[in-house]
Amino acid sequence: MLAGVGAVLVVGLAVLVPVLLSQDDDSTSSQGRDGGGDTTLDAVEEYSDLETSHTEDPVDYEQSPPVGGPHAPVWLDCGVYDEPVSEEHVVHDLEHGTVWITYEPGLDEESVAALEAVLPDNGILSPYDGLEAPVVVTVWERQLELTGADDPRLEQFIDEFGAGETAPEPFASCAGGLADPSGSPV
Questions:
Q1: In a shared domain, residues 59 and 90
Q2: 40 with 26, same domain?
Q3: Mean per-residue pLDDT for 107-115?
């Protein structure tokens, strides 16, 4: 009788295990930390052939936040800003290979601190009015909307694009730029 019960258990496991393994096998690899959301970089928006000219005039960028295009002749200094920054100056930073992390104004302090913790030395962190997502990470010609500061794709994006790979003037530092986020000389 024990042999019969053992045989039933073996057959049951032989059927059940493959079924369980095939269910959502790849869905768990595309889940975020909270069980939802994609953890791949498939959602990165790509833009190409953006103009690299300098201008003193305000620019009406097609993307928000901008991912490149005409920009101010002087860039913004690297760092963390607690108010919105001049787009025309930051686009110059993007041309140099800077990572720009923007977040919704009013994001909680803990989340802003988490964003600061992953900001590369050649990076700018600032609030941005009117974002389509709580956090957006941008480099020249690439952008990714994120679910928040804890979205695992933020660090993946920085690992993939944060060294200036897409920038027309990669590896130029954002250090030494304007210190005033409005873009006015200090």
A1: yes
A2: no
A3: 98
Q: Report the chain's mean pLDDT, rounded to a whole number.
A: 85
Tell me the C-alpha distance between 63 and 141, whole Å.
Answer: 10
Same domain, 96 and 53: yes
Quote the CA–CA distance of 1 and 170 in Å, as a whole number: 74
Query: Same domain, yes or no, for 51 and 6?
Result: no
Mean pLDDT of 10-34: 40
Nearest one of 65, 93, 88, 100 to 168, comparing CA atoms: 93
**Residue 26 lies in domain:** 1-30
Asked if the structure places residue 166 within a domain, the reply is: no
Q: SS in 3 state form for the chain? A: CHHHHHHHHHHHHHHHHHHHHHCCCCCCCCCCCCCCCCCCCCCCEECCCCCCCECCCCCCCCCCCCCCCCECCCCECCEECCCCCCHHHHHHHHHCCCEEEEECCCCCHHHHHHHHHHCCCCEEEEECCCCCCCEEEEECCEEEEECCCCCCHHHHHHHHHCCCCCCCCCCCCCCCCECCCCCCCC
Quote the pTM value: 0.80
**Domain membership flag for residue 171:** no
Domain count, the chain: 2
